# Entry
Amino acid sequence: MKPTPSGKPASTMTGGSISEFPAIPTASANSSHTPNNPYSYPGTIMKRQYPKGMQVSLPDDETCAAYAIRGERPMDDDEFFEFCGNNPDLRVERDANGEIIVMPPAGFETGYRNSDLTAQLTIWAKADDRGIALDSNTEYVLPNSAARSPDASWVLKSRVAKLTGKQKKVFPRLCPDFVVELTSPSDRLHKVKAKMREWIDNGAQLGWLIDPDHRTVYVYRPGIEPEELVDIEHVDGESPVKGFRLELSVIWKGL
# Structure
């Protein structure tokens, strides 16, 4: 096993459901968008090299923290979707550089808080009828090529209608209009804040970062610094989810 900078070994994950990927030719400048490619953005050129080999480097601070798979090449979108499908028990994201991030499963209390968050958004979305609410299992491929899963999200129905049947069955190449991230004990706040900024930079119109331990909500909007709301009882939505109110009593209290 190859040592990582932290001095801990990094295990090469080959065979089984996490496999070594074969070399693939670099995409040509005019082949990034085809009618049969559900992941393509019109006009986007994505050149990548694909040598073999995948490595897992484990963090040296705590075992419940996320860890990264740093390969000699990034997975393309089809490989990443297949990787996630072959490993349904893993919570997996991909950053804009192609690094695969494997996160620990949600703990009991975090799951309880997140279910309340998703339920409130879903009930409102069905009554409002302009968009659909989605839970933390939904992954989006963003314009910067990152693949991210918020704890809850909302997308206009008019945008959903533009997706093909095939695109609806994979990770959609779009950024939700509204996202919510809920911190958990394994999260590093600065990293979740960076993820929130990534959502906004890639097209989200509104984002809420909820930190239950400090009873704080950070409100993210395009073009301005986030607003910090401390010890509030609820947070009100605005465009695009004007009319939505998230009651925070259950999230603050936990179990």
